[in-house]
Structures are given as C-alpha cells and as structure tokens.
C-alpha cells in the first residue's frame, strides 16, 4: 500500500485530468488493462495523450462486436451487454490475464488493475439518453490476494453521443485516480468523480465498494452520499446492506411502497405492510413472484431534526434490513414524484400504503403551488397509471372515532376531487387491521426508548427490541473515524 503513497505526493492537489493521468503513468508500479465497450476508448485515450502510457497500460481494447464480446467474456443469461454482470466478467477476465501474463518474479512491485466500462450512449432517435456500468478491480499492495473493487452505474443526460463519450472518459480517469490515491477517503472520492464534470451531464445512481481496503465502508452510507451530493434522486439497498440499481430492481415489477420514518419500525408499520401486501397480491393483475416491496424514507424525513444524522439513518436501515426488506432513500417529498419515478421502469401495478394523515396531505393544495397545473397536474401523474392507495385507519385521539376513507376530512374545495378518486377505486381501506396497536406511533416508541422508559419493547415487532439493545441503536452517536471518512 505504501508503494502507492510514497511517490509523487507533491502532486496531491493538482486538479487537471492530464495531471491525474500523468501521475498514474509516472508511477512505475501501477499497471493494468482498459476494456471499454460501447463508447470508444475514451478513458484509455486520456492516458495515451498525457504521455508515459507504456508504463501503465498493458492492454487497451474494445470488444465492440457482440460476437467478439461473447467469445471473450461469455454470453449473458439475459442476452444483454450493458449490465453489471457483464462488467464483472470483464474485470475478472482481464485481471486474470494480467496475473497469468505478467511475472511477479520480474515485476515484484507491480500493482495490477483492471478498468472496464460497458455503455450504451444516446440512441439515434434521442428517446433514450443512455447509461452504463463502470468499474475498477485493483490492488494497493503487490502481495494483496483479495482485490479491491469499485463499481458504479451512470445515466447520461446529454443529448449528443460525442459529449457523453467525453464525459465517460473523464469519469473513468477520476475513478482510476481515486482508486489509487483517494481510496482512504471514499466519501470524498465520490465527489471527486465529478472533477471537471457538470452534475447536469451525468447521474451516478449506484455505487458499491468491496475488498480489504474498504472493509469498513458501509455501502448504505455511500448510497446516502449520492443523494446528499445531488448525484441522483433515489437509491436502493437490500437486506444484505449492498446497494443495487433501482432501474434493474424495478424493471417491469409490480411495486408496493410504504413511506415512513421507521424511527424505529413499529408493529403498526408491519401491520400496514402485511395487510396491504395481502390485498395487493390478491389482485388478478399482480404476479406475486414479480412483486417488489419497498420501504421508502425521504431525504426530508432524514432531515426532520435539522441536518442528517448518519447514525440515525444507519439505525433505521439496520432494523429494516434485519426484517428482510428492501429500502429506498429518495428526494421525492411529494407522492406523485415517487410514482413518476416508478413509472420510468414499470407499467405494472403500483400500490402505496399510507395512513390517514398522509392521504389528507395529498389533497392539500399548498404542496402543488409550484406546479403550473397545480393539484390537477399532480393528480394526473399520481393516479393516471395502475395505482391504488391502501389506507390504514387512524383512531382520533380526542373522539375515539376510527378514521377511514369514508369519513376523513379534506379541504372543502377538494371534496369532489376526493370523491372522484374514492369512487373510482383508487383508494382502498385496510379493514382487517389490528385495533390493539392503533395507539402506537414511532415518535412515542423512540421517546420511551431514549428516556429509558418502560413499554417501548411492546410497541415494536418481535426480535427488534433485542437488536436495538444489543447494538445500542438510537441511543448512541456516530463515532467519528480517525480520518475524515465514514464507515
């Protein structure tokens, strides 16, 4: 590892792309391959142009023809080429060749890397902007057996293939440079990926770090950084804590989404999920095997108490992952934006599970004043597709009345609009709810937990109190690492 850092430290603050490539080229230890499919040899080109590339580039190739690509990397099960699976095969294949063909006896100090991308730029009709997978597999010590890896997915926003190619080339340089010289600062490395790139030109909507030098990196927190840095609008991670690409996960899926604070997740949250899921999968249009459930938290919810508390976020994520659920963090404060996002990737059935207060808010005009079409524009986007709201009742604390879709109070101007959607079957009551738990709210459970009061355990699903106690969730602050980085 020291062999990377001991050289050329005077160049640390040089920002230009040429300076980055030159610093790598002039390091006699860094040596690797470039394999780029779909957008030319854009990253390798920067290294060739800066000079001294013969000491860095073992091979640069583009298996652009599908038959050639299949012959080299194999055939994907789904027949596609711009996939994470294809990228990983490229990285693995090229790194294996490096290790087979370059003698360690002759080059004991060499630090091998394999950089790859598989990309589809904008199509001729300009309907699809294009996207791609970019990654690097590398070592920071010549004796390192288990390799480090960084993989990310990008979406282009530019309207010309040439501009997208140029953006890809710069991004590739930033990734390779960051891997070798900023690996100990993963949060900052994400920001450095946009060096000399306008955020309006490309979106990074997934990233995963793996390997021995990233053993303390939690990819869920890396997802949060993508949102905080305005690199994307939504990120997702699974029960295993690893990030996955929303576009792939949601593609042609039936989706049931539950929005909440989950701070902590309560019996009511789980009752909402189970009861709405039972209704959802009984719909003849829904294939249970092709259904995804998402527990969604908005960025505004994470900021409810001011700045984002990363430990608080991790505590919520820990519980939802322990329950085996997929989690989405989004910037969509309004429900119609969330539905619009889902509609990018699927035309199948959509379900939103919510409480009475959430539904009342949906019919509040103040949330739509920024739209030229006002609330009608929002509702056209919200209810136009195959969407249904599953409404969990609420007990009025003052009167004891059970509030459902039949007796909720919306603004008088919204009554007829509400009736239209209600009588067209867009809102369905959850009727088999558990009346014994209706008094439970996350905020009350959290207050009892923090103040060490009795009774909070009974408000949470089975097994969750034990996890909270064992890991001291919601009662500790994020310990600041020795460096300025996060785990």
Q: What does this entry look like structurally?
A:
This protein is of the alpha/beta class and 487 residues long. Helix content is 37%, strand content 19%. It contains 18 helices and 16 strands. The strands form three sheets. An eight-stranded mixed beta sheet has the order 8-7-11-10-9-12-13-16, with helices on both faces. Strand 1, helix 3 and strand 2 form a beta-alpha-beta unit. Helix 2 crosses helix 3, helix 3 packs across helix 6 and helix 13 runs parallel beside helix 15. The C terminus is likely disordered.
Assembly state: single chain
Beta-strand content bin: 15-25%
Helicity level: 25-40%
Sheet/helix structural class: alpha/beta
Number of helices: 18
Low-confidence stretches: 5-12, 478-487
Strand order of the largest sheet: 8-7-11-10-9-12-13-16
- Major sheet size, sense and barrel closure: 8 strands, mixed
Outline: elongated
Distance between the termini: 20 Å
